[in-house]
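Each record in this resource describes a single protein on a pair of labelled lines. The shape at a given residue is found from the number at the same position. The record below illustrates this layout:

***
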Amino acid sequence: MVDIDWPADFGNWLDRLEADARAGDEHSRLMLVFTARALDQLRNLSEPPDQEEETATLRWVRQSRRYPLWRVSHAYHPEVAVRLICWFPPDTGKAVVALFVRGEAMTEPENTMFVRGNEHLDRLLSDPQLAAEVAQAHEAAEEMDRAYAMNLAMIRKAGQMTQVEVARKLGVGQGVVSRLENRNDMLLSTLYDYLMATGADSASIVVTVHGSRIELDLGQLRHTHPHQRSA
């Protein structure tokens, strides 16, 4: 379990959101559900996340002057989009909510007072209806995480390689490999080079046309066009 700290203004915003939700405002109710879900996800982490193990709902954003910043999100909803920005100070067992997006911006001036939020979250989730809605939001988020995990990173992990090791073989930086693993489109030559760098013995694409199964050897295609630029 992780302790959650947030700016006092963030706690005040949560109180107002809860009051509006109890008064019957549906948008506030949705915002409260997804915010509580994000905070609950952070609290239930066993350890700070690793950049190579990010998920769809917990993703590395950038490196600040002191700590890596992470974004917590949720499965798509047509009416709301809740994004929490946070960091994990080393050796503290804490997650610090630094910024709330799609609502009020929470900055980090030197005189900002941070407070512990676990008890506040416990109180929110003591509401059976809210807890049930948060549980449903967790299920949707977990499904999104499972779909996100079914990408090129699965092949790299099967080869027991890190992004840094693959990057070294490709002659690029680790950030390039991270972006590559989350792209929706790429050249076949890029795909082949990545697969070979992960230790794949061979790589092919299987296409079925009118019941006929056709297998294309990516290696052969790659060497047929040796001057094709990877992208």
Q: What stands out?
A: Residues 101-105, 227-231 have pLDDT under 50 and may be disordered.
